[in-house]
Amino acid sequence: MTTTDWDAAAESFDDEPDHGLLDPVVRRAWAQRMETWLPHARSEVLDLGCGTGSLSLLVAGQGHRVTAVDRSPRMAEQARAKLAGTGTEVLVGDAGRPPVGTQRFDVILARHVVWLLPDPAAVLRHWFSLLRPGGRLVLIEGVWNGTGIPAARLTELLTAHTERVHHEPLSGDSRLWGKEVDDERYALVARAEPPRRHREVVDVHLILRRGPDVLLARRANTGYADGLLHAPSGHAEDGEDVREAMVRETAEEIGIVLDPDELRVALVMQHRGPGGNPRMGWFFEAVHDPARPPRNAEPDKCSELAWFPLDALPDDMVAYCRAGLDGYRAQERFLIHWHEDGDPVAHAPSGPHRVVPLPVAGPRTGRVHHIELWVPDLAEAEAEWGWLLGELGHVPYQHWAHGRSWRRGDTYVVAERSPDLTGTAHDRLRPGLNHLAFHVEDRATLDALVARAPGHGWRPLVPGARPRESGGHHTACLENTAGYEVELVAP
Question: What is the crossing angle of helices 3-11 and 73-82, to 10°?
């Protein structure tokens, strides 16, 4: 690309000359952003593709020492005039290989440069070599009318060098552009970190319960899994414990200030996303307080907040979150959720279920391993038992030609249409299995299950009977089409 081509391409990104920074409102908005992206202490900043030096002037005005580079002698000359008296050095050279010799910098700043590079991966590798340990790249990019580089692609390139990449959407702030925009504009701040021992990001996720429902948020403008549902979540920051992180993220995302004592650990899950690094996720449960309704406190990152039944979660979810909530329903405590590189980030109902439950240490002798029911009609059993066991927190486990199973913890229930069956009907009054009994959380949940059961093949054992009290418990007995009895027991 010639110098003339470069200049024309860069200027095509903004309708106003000088990147719009002649407007005092725009200039002030960029200055405010720079204060959050740059170190507080005086730093050495390399501004690549500096143009006429407008961003360099803002950076120098905040007390930093700037070296500015542009391949256009005309641009560099204008930058020198603009930056006279600031101590800024302006060089003519290629942004991909800036002529700075062995000098190292605390910050490398580039606006609308990476998308123009023929080999951005190689250039980013070189830029990281110009940073001091702990330094940072500040990259301002976007996609205009199909031209540019998406945040997800640039983030992927950066993760080859660092795990610390902060994504900040910029499209929603019209002050930066002097007008409303609806395309993708963003900044990425990537930290240069020295080699260290293996370390994993710690995530925190909130399972906010409103009876049988949980709160989910739809991601937007983040560059990762946008459009998919996820529980309110975030990362633990340096110096925070996981409860403090969950309290902070809850306040930032849904405007609720939780007391740490309101949180209960639901499960811990190690996760690896496709093409990503492992991370550790802590899922916390909290109960919805009607006096503190949730609100969308980050509309630039979230397009929707809504309640969904825990036992009928939508499919358009982040697979990581869906696996955690399914494990929570099954009362798992520790899980591994490992993506292969080709797996989708979104939950795939018919895709591979890469979830491994980890048993909790403790005496195993005497605990029920599994219960196997031989059934006359597998399709009927799958529909009826699948619904009831799903309502009780079991998740699909095994699937083969003659059978299905549903697991909760390290115990599972099997329904099998065995070729060795000697009869075609189950009779609970004959010697053998009479019934199965399951715990239910409370009387309200019991009543709701009994009310919905007839629509799924289960009817009260005694027609018209309602749950009764027995031995300090409320119980209800249901019978399915094949004559199997289940007793539901609530405290």
Answer: 60
In this structure, are residues 123 and 153 in contact, taking their beta carbons and an 8 Å threshold?
Answer: no
pLDDT digits (tens, 9 = 90+) for 380-392: 999 999 999 999 9
Predicted pLDDT of residue 18:
55
Helix (H) or strand (E) holding 16: none
The yes-or-no verdict on residue 469 having pLDDT over 70 is yes
Answer whether 47's CB lies under 8 Å from 67's CB: yes
Enumerate domains of the chain plus CATH numbers: 3-191 (3.40.50.150), 201-357 (3.90.79.10), 370-490 (3.10.180.10)
The sign of the torsion formed by the CA atoms of 448, 451, 455, 456 equals: positive
Indicate the burial class of 111 (C-beta count within 10 angstroms; 0-12, 13-18, 19 or more): buried
End-to-end CA distance of the chain: 75
Q: How far apart (Å, rounded) are the C-alpha atoms in residues 20 and 11? A: 10
| 3 state SS of 458 | strand
pLDDT digits (tens, 9 = 90+) for 325-357: 999 988 889 999 998 888 889 998 877 668 888
* Beta strand spans in 211-272 (E): 213-219, 229-230, 233-235, 264-272
Place of tokens 């059961």: 453
Lowest mean pLDDT among 194-203, 275-284, 300-309: 194-203
Amino acid at 237: E
Region 222-228 average pLDDT? 89
| Residues of the chain above pLDDT 70, percent | 95
The 3-state DSSP composition of the chain as helix, strand, coil percent (nearest 5) reads 25, 30, 40
b/e per residue, 192-216, with b = 16+ CB within 10 A? bbeeeeeeeebbbbbbbbeebbbbb
Burial class (CB in 10 A: 0-12, 13-18, 19+), 42: exposed
pTM, 2 dp: 0.45
* Residues sharing a CB contact under 8 Å with residue 109, sequence separation 6 or more, in sequence order: 45, 46, 47, 48, 55, 59, 138, 140
DSSP 238: T
421-449 burial, b if ≥16 CB within 10 A, otherwise e? eeeeebeeeeeeeeebebebeeeebbbeb
Q: How far apart are CA 439 and CA 289, in angstroms?
A: 26
Tell me how far apart the alpha carbons of residues 453 and 12 are, in angstroms, rounded to a whole number: 63
pLDDT > 70? residue 449: yes
Q: What is the pLDDT of residues 116-136, one digit of tens each?
A: 999 999 999 999 999 998 899
Q: Which of 85-99, 132-146, 193-207 has the lowest mean pLDDT?
A: 193-207
